[in-house]
Write a structure and sequence with these properties.
The chain is α+β, with helices and mostly antiparallel strands and about 250 residues long. It has ten helices and ten strands. The chain folds into two domains: about 130 residues, Jelly Rolls; about 100 residues, Arc Repressor Mutant, subunit A (Orthogonal Bundle). The chain is about 40% helix and about 25% strand. Strands 7-4-9-2-1-10 form a six-stranded mixed β-sheet, with helices on both faces. A four-stranded antiparallel β-sheet has the order 3-8-5-6, covered by helices on one side. A hairpin with a 2-residue loop joins β1 and β2.
């Protein structure tokens, strides 16, 4: 059973706690799995099974997870610098990227990771550093117009949101604001908004709202739309995230 804490950044979700099982699924993010206590089982679409402490699964690849362990998950948007770096780790193994062989080989550097005397947040940073060097930051807005756009954005998520409209509100062209999203935040505008909508929906659900209310507050058509996007991005349903998982602000 999933039970832990999730911190949701634009383009990245960090989960620490109990790792539960999940039926066959895939997600739009690269996924790092590291068990600090216990073993995680993975099965690929060819039926090959693997069990161990660490794995790295690229975006869009079907898989199942089994077992109960305590550890961490890092989901990174496939289009982000971190997501691309993690995907490259899998590709460099030389094994088929849709196989448990590649996923386990990509994470071999983590087997030497000393997880003692660390909290799991520190462990996540250490794990990413072991794989790709200094992990890409979550992104910080330096340009004042981008900072203003990010201040305005949460109040605009309950409906359609176009880059041109947001750019006009902060006195920039759409192309310039789009460049700032990519350069300073590491994500293009559309995936940034998708993650921002998901975080807003989870925040609303955490405060006691129904999934339908949460969906509407974040600009999804209905709870089914929210569930579909959540599963596509993370392989988990909003109910799983909002129920057993405590969402915290970064």
């Amino acid at each position: 059973m999933w039970q832990g804490t999730a911190t949701l950044y634009p383009g990245r979700l960090l989960y620490t706690g109990r790792l539960g099982s999940a039926h066959r699924h895939h997600h739009a993010a690269a996924q790092l799995i590291f068990s600090a206590n216990g073993s995680v089982g993975l099965r690929d679409d060819a039926g090959r099974h693997w069990a161990g402490r660490a794995a790295l699964i690229p975006p869009g690849v079907p898989h199942e997870t089994t077992g109960t362990a305590t550890g961490l998950l890092v989901f990174a948007d496939a289009q982000s610098p971190l997501g691309r770096a993690l995907t490259d780790c899998v590709q460099r193994t030389g094994s088929a990227v849709d196989s448990v062989t590649a996923w386990s080989r990509a994470a071999l550097p983590l087997l030497d990771l000393d997880d003692g005397e660390r909290d799991l947040q520190q462990l996540a940073h250490a794990a990413l550093t072991a794989l790709i060097g200094d992990p890409a930051p979550t992104g910080a807005a330096r340009h004042p117009a981008l900072r203003r756009a990010l201040e305005l954005l949460p109040d605009l998520l309950d409906g359609p949101l176009r880059l041109a409209e947001l750019a006009a509100a902060v006195g920039l062209s759409a192309s310039r604001l789009g460049h700032l999203f990519r350069a300073e935040l590491g994500l293009a505008f559309p995936p940034y908004v998708r993650w921002a909508r998901l975080r807003q929906a989870m925040d609303h659900a955490r405060r006691g709202g129904t999934l339908t209310e949460a969906a509407h507050a974040a600009g999804f058509a209905d709870s089914a739309h929210l569930t579909r996007v959540c599963r596509e991005m993370l392989g988990l349903t909003p109910s799983e995230l909002a129920g057993a998982v405590t969402m915290v602000r970064p």
